[in-house]
Design goal:
Length: about 120
C-alpha cells in the first residue's frame, strides 16, 4: 500500500513484478490509498454509490495515474464483500481508494483483513 509520492526511481516495474507473483490463494495484490480527492475531477458525493477508480477513470495528476497503474484489480471475492457492505464498486474497479473518505478506508481495511484471515485459517493445519 502506498500513499505518498516517490522520490527515487520509478516504482512501477517493481509493483508490476509483485503483481505477477502468486500465492496458494491467488495473485499478490497491491492496494493504494490516495490522500486528496483533488485527483478526481469532482468529489465523491455518495461513497455507497461511487463505482471506484476504474482503468478509464479521469484523474487530474500524473502521480495519480501512476498509482492507478500500480493498483491491482479488485478480486471478485473482495467485490462480493464490498457489495454486501452496501457499496457499489464496479466490476472493473481497482484497489485504489480515497484516504479522505473514512468509510471507504475502513471498508478497504476490512476486506483485506477478512480475506487475509481466511487465507491464514485455510493454511492452518
Amino acid at each position: 500500500m502506498t500513499d505518498g509520492e516517490y522520490t527515487g526511481e520509478d516504482p512501477e516495474p517493481i509493483a508490476r513484478e509483485i503483481m505477477q507473483m502468486t500465492t496458494s490463494d491467488g495473485p499478490v495484490l497491491i492496494e493504494n490509498i490516495f490522500i486528496s480527492d483533488k485527483i478526481l475531477p469532482r468529489p465523491i458525493d455518495d461513497v455507497y454509490r461511487w463505482p471506484g477508480v476504474r482503468p478509464m477513470t479521469e484523474l487530474t495528476n500524473e502521480y495519480a495515474v501512476k498509482l492507478r497503474a500500480m493498483s491491482s484489480p479488485v478480486p471478485d471475492s473482495y467485490r462480493v464483500m464490498i457489495l454486501e457492505m452496501g457499496y457499489n464498486i464496479a466490476e472493473d474497479a481497482l484497489m485504489f481508494f480515497p484516504g479522505m473518505t473514512p468509510e471507504l478506508v475502513e471498508m478497504a481495511f476490512q476486506i483485506t483483513t477478512v480475506t487475509g484471515t481466511q487465507s491464514l485459517m485455510e493454511a492452518w493445519p
